[in-house]
Amino acid sequence: MSKGSRKLVGFLWAIIIAVVSFFVIYIFFPDVSTKFFGVSMKNPERIGQAVSNAAESVAGTVTDAVNGITK
After folding, report:
1. Region of residue 43 (phi > 0: left; psi between -120 and 50: alpha; otherwise: beta)
2. Segments in 1-71 forming alpha helices (H)
3. pLDDT along the chain (71 residues), means of 10
4. How far apart are CA 3 and CA 8, in angstroms?
5. Which of 1, 35, 46, 71 is deepest in the core (most CB within 10 A)?
6. Can you give the pTM of this predicted structure?
7. Which one, of 6, 36, 42, 5, lies nearest residue 21 by Cα?
């Protein structure tokens, strides 16, 4: 296995651990989730708002990047 592929595998494991950790904290520790993430099972309407804001932000960034490449 080359050095680059080991780095990629390590990065993917880190992403998986981060996502699983988020959902464990989100589901089982709502107070901690509210304090550090700003969302929890106690306030489900805020998670929808956070997701839509993140999607809009990503869409804007991608659009800017594509426009920058095509110019």
Report:
1. beta
2. 3-28, 30-37, 44-70
3. 78 91 86 80 68 81 78 66
4. 9
5. 46
6. 0.52
7. 36
